[in-house]
Design brief:
Blueprint lengths: L1 H14 L3 E5 H7 L7 H13 L2 E4 L10 E6 L5 H13 L6 H31 L6
Helix pairs in contact: 4-5
């Protein structure tokens, strides 16, 4: 049963925009266990990897109260941005660094453009004259 649940997790994360915040306890319960131990955490990391889900921190803690940011590595949304950031933060500089930086910049420009109209609207609203009551 848990293999089927893990296979459905990417769709759940996509539903939340490509990323989701879980605590270790929730991951442990999701895997069908009651307590986080080294072997269970290792199995969870393996299941996440097999299903295309990245996580921050990169090494899952065994403390069940710790928060973990899960993200879908393969979807063209914010989860993909997180994947690029993670890769750039953990890899050595190599021939793929410049293209990855360029791709991340392009993605971030798209995100900031999408948010910009709301930011402008909010700024205009802050500076608009107050209506008399």
């Amino acid at each position: 049963m848990t293999e089927q649940a893990w296979a459905k997790l990417p769709a759940l994360i996509d539903f939340n925009g490509g990323y989701d915040l879980w605590d270790v306890e929730r991951l442990v319960f999701f895997d069908g266990h009651q307590k986080a131990g080294a072997r269970i955490v290792e199995r969870i990391e393996q299941q996440l990897a097999e299903n295309g889900i990245g996580h921050l921190p990169t090494k899952l803690p065994t403390d069940s109260t710790c928060q973990v940011l899960l993200y879908n590595k393969d979807q063209p949304n914010l989860g993909y941005v997180l994947r690029l950031v993670h890769e750039l933060a953990t890899q050595e500089v190599n021939d793929n660094t410049n293209p990855s930086i360029h791709q991340l910049n392009t993605l971030l420009n798209g995100i900031s453009t999408a948010w910009q109209p709301t930011a402008r609207r909010d700024a205009v609203a802050r500076h608009a004259p107050k209506e008399a009551s």
